[in-house]
Amino acid sequence: MADKGAHFYRCDFQVHTPRDLQWTGADRVTDDERMAYATSLVEACRQKGLNAVAITDHHDMTFVPYVKRASLAETDEKGKPLAAEQRLIVFPGIELTLAVPCQAILILDADFEENRFGAVLTALAINPAPDNAAKTAQTERLENIQSLKALKDKLDEHTWLRDRYIVYPNVTGEGKFSLLRNGMMAKYKEMPFVGGYVDGKLGDLKAGPISILAGKDKNWGNKRIACIQTSDNRREDNADLGKHTSWIKWVRPTAEALRQACLAQESRVAHEEPQLPAAIISSISVSNSQFLGPVELSFNPQYNTLIGGRGTGKSTILEYLRWALCDQPPASDDPDAPNYQSRRSRLIENTLKPLNATVDVGFTVNDVVHVVRRDSKDGSLLIKIGSDDMRPCNEAEVRALLPIQAYSQKQLSDVSVRTDELARFITAPIRAELNQLDRRIEERAERIRQTYANRRRQQALQNDLARRALEARSLQEQADAIRDSLTGLSEEDRSLLNEGKSYDAAEDIVDGWLADLKSLASGLSALSSNIAGNLAQAKPSPDAPEGVLLRAAYEEYAALMGRAREVADSLLGEVRQPIDAADGTAWAEWRQRLHGFRAAYSAAVGRSSTHRERMEQLQGIEGRLSAFHKETVRLQDELKSLNMAGDVYAAERQKWYDLKAERDGLFDRQCQKLTENANGAIRAHIKRFADAGDFVSRLRESLSGSNVRREKLEALGAYIVDAENPQDRWARVLSELEQLAAFEPEQEGADLRPDTASLAAAGLTATDLDRIARKLQSDDWLALSLIDVKSEPVFEFRSRENDYIPFSNASAGQQATALLKTLLNQIGPPLLIDQPEEDLDNPVMQEIVEQLWNAKRKRQIIFVSHNANLVVNGDAELVAWCDYRKAGDQSGGKIAGEGAIDVPDVREAIKRIMEGGEAAFNLRREKYGF
């Protein structure tokens, strides 16, 4: 593991060997036999998913060296020795039968010297069987050890042993070897150890023992201890190995690490595989820095703390992280508020840019490694995902792929005065879902823009055809009047002239049919080409899985597509015949007869010399009427293609509304979660259609120069959001504005301006409405209609039971405490906070500490802190401490060390650097009566 912090290891701390008197399997006596057994045990541990075992034969340690050597000799699939951190960890141990009376497991540091195993047995007055014996000696109770306190005193007599062991007494319910039997209360209460073990599953114990171990039984001293599940494997086939295990957290496999795990069992001991955050910052690498120099730091997946004296660089590391991951610091219009943006800009400008430094951040999401590199010279970004090469990206992409939630020093206290900062508590945990919804909303908005153009064309065609119908009627009446006025014509010529109108009507009808057929031919041709393209690009069936089945499916697909193309091509040939007026068809015959009639008609007109002027006038009108009819047919055909445009537009608009409602629903559910996560300290809900600011700004921009007063438009926004049903009112306002955008006062007459009751009710006068009608264009209206009237989260603070006040009315400390508790309860992206203790009231610090134990299972946490209680009793998996590069010189800092509190160097650094460090460790011990 790359980082130097604490990690979980799956452990079975009661593993017996062939020396055990109750062993089921062959004996192992020679070195080769014992080594073969040890090798098979290590392999079995791997198969069972174990990371660590304790070899705990009764009053015997003979097999421990063999298992340790087998672990050291383990190789990977290529036969190469495993790295030290990948090897199976083997703790030397002994199962003791004490005169307490109870059994206990003694476990030593994993690196405890083998040449002192005998001395450990001697210290306990154990006389083991000879090493070359097949079995251990018959177990005899250690009558000289009649209490667990006496056991500790005896072991601590030896300086080489002191602090290098841990004892777990048997607490398997009320069994004959358990410390929890009747009459053992005093022995339990005085015991100096902080853990115990059970043979099997902790959950199988009865309620009484569970209550005692949880420290809830006054008769047993309210003494709480951690419990370790063990399998008690005594079988050669290892059937019981790893059956009952516990996951224990440490940096180094030492007895002190096991003790620290017991002291923080909520955080460091689990009986089911622990769930770790899915998204973590894994590392930061700064090529150079004027202040810190090069930085290389790997982060733990759970709780990380950066500590150090003031000005040593711990906050700088946090800001480098946020800058590289493009986390946007909040801006503020308040001149008295901290300007986080300018602070960070100065930091980058002063410490990185002069050295052309780059910052690399490793970020792991669901085990996929991402690396972001940001260049201080121009702020440019590169990203690498998995095994891909680095490629350029932008800030929005980084924030979308690798989100974090971060707060600068004292920023939590400023949150309540910024609506967008408060909203982050709702949006941050659902950022991915929101981004997806926002993309779908924008895609739907684009379809609205496209379908709106068709709808407008449909409406324009309908209006145009209505006007054309009047014009055509006029021309037809004129032509009829001229025909009726003609006198002295032969009956044959008059009959021809009268038939002209019916031939014109028939020609219009036939042209309509042909237009339909041409449209069909175009569709069939496109369909045929589409099928051919699909067949050419279709991937062949795979050989696996189900190769035979998928080949049959592919053949059916290809056959269906081929037949479809044949049908399309065949039908296309048939459709082309009327269009081309092929010989022998009714279409060709109609064309011939129409041409014959036109010729006869022209001849009849030519013979009427006495009415030549009227005839020429009639010909002109009929020519115009014919051209007019042809254009009308074309427009009708276009209108036919747009037959569903209005419905399609309405459907797209409704889907856009539905997506917005889905987003509000997502906000609602997250508000409920936030209220639950805050344990009622904060209550949140979504107020729909609460902010019309963007809508009003866009309307004002569209009406610029119209002399409609600004306050009138702002009043319109208030009229919308203050309604009992703001969504309905917004829809009515939009509908009326659309009518005004489509209205043309100069052509239609100002007196015919559409009725706009809602706009009038909002305070807009007739003059205002006329100005809007003259200025607002349809394109402006479309853009306006796609501007959100935003929904907003509303936050309240619980001042006392069932009594809530506006969140802004709570004190800064109350606000920060409630918000931090909420953050710690949320599942979300990595949480970075600079000195959270500065926002908190001291009395709540212990509550925050206890929340940290659960919080780090849900999300990665990185705190910069001066508070030892947060670091020690919050049980940070990784502590990195900063110091000055040169003692007393505050011009440069460095990372002086890393580790976790089970490492002595880390504990000493905490005590030395942090005020209250010693007291925090004392509190940790006192909590457990140790």
From TrEMBL:
Pfam families on file: AAA_21, AAA_23
Which Gene Ontology molecular function entries are recorded, alphabetically?
ATP binding; ATP hydrolysis activity
Mind telling me which InterPro entries this protein's record contains? Answer: ATPase_AAA_core, P-loop_NTPase, Pol/histidinol_Pase-like, Rad50/SbcC_AAA, TrlF_ATPase
Q: What is the lineage of its organism?
A: Bacteria, Pseudomonadati, Pseudomonadota, Alphaproteobacteria, Hyphomicrobiales
For the Rad50/SbcC-type AAA domain, which residue ranges apply?
A: 284-491
Q: Which NCBIfam families match?
A: TrlF_fam_ATP
Task: Write down what this protein is called.
Answer: Rad50/SbcC-type AAA domain-containing protein
Q: Where is the ATPase AAA-type core domain?
A: 589-871
The highest taxon in the source lineage is Bacteria
Q: Which organism is it from?
A: Borborobacter arsenicus
| Annotated GO biological process | DNA synthesis involved in DNA repair; double-strand break repair
Annotated coiled-coil positions are none
